[in-house]
């Protein structure tokens, strides 16, 4: 089955700096890569996602890049703010056809701390 | 649009007791997922429903866990008997179809003593 590795496990930055979180996946058939933000005691919330037919997607201060050949994707947050502090999870999903049914496999998470 | 609802939000039980969690997905969402999130880890899929049928329960410990979605809307997840290692947050999520965006509920925090 799919395996997703996420790095780093913790990331500390100063307000205004950029933050980058990287993930690798094992199943070359995976075609959907969402990123979730989870604040302490809250539900995971989708912040951005990318499908395998594009290499990069941007939404204001957040961007995701995908390299299908190398099987890795990254989250980039620019101009970080204290409210960006949370746990970030990457995930990968294979197509809904076949035996995968669109199952999401999550990385281990990155604790991002933005210092004022 | 109302989000995914779950209850209870918190539950404390002793080992060997049973417990049940309830989930109401976003209206019209055919696909429903139950995840287990152990502290410090990412969510792990336990079971996935498409309408009222199970499409993936490969990681569900079937000797103690069971789930149903009888009418293709609400779902319940049951643990019987509970073990200490079942202490976790149980998240329910739904999507309009498999492979599309999953929306998570607030979760049920289970502590097994």
Round the Cα radius of gyration of chain B to an integer and report it: 13 Å
Oligomer: heterodimer
Helix count of chain A equals: 0
Protein chain pair with the most extensive contact, residues per chain = A-B, 25 and 25 residues
Shape of chain A: globular
Global outline of chain B: globular
Helix content estimate of chain B: under 10%
Secondary-structure-based class of chain B equals mainly beta
Main β-sheet of chain A, in a few words?
6 strands, mixed
Describe the 3D structure.
- The complex is a heterodimer of chains A (116) and B (113).
- Chain A has strands at 4-7, 10-14, 19-25, 32-38, 45-51, 56-59, 62-67, 72-77, 86-93, 104-106, 110-115.
- By secondary structure, chain A is mostly beta strands.
- The relative contact order of chain A is 0.33.
- Chain B has 113 residues and is mostly beta strands.
- Helices cover 0% and strands 49% of the residues of chain B.
- In chain B, the strands form 2 sheets. In chain B, strands 2, 4, 5, 6, 9, 10 and 11 form a 7-stranded mixed β-sheet that branches. In chain B, strands 1-3-8-7 form a 4-stranded antiparallel β-sheet, with no helix packed on it.
- Chain B starts with a strand and ends with a strand.
- The interface between A and B is medium-sized, with 25 and 25 residues.
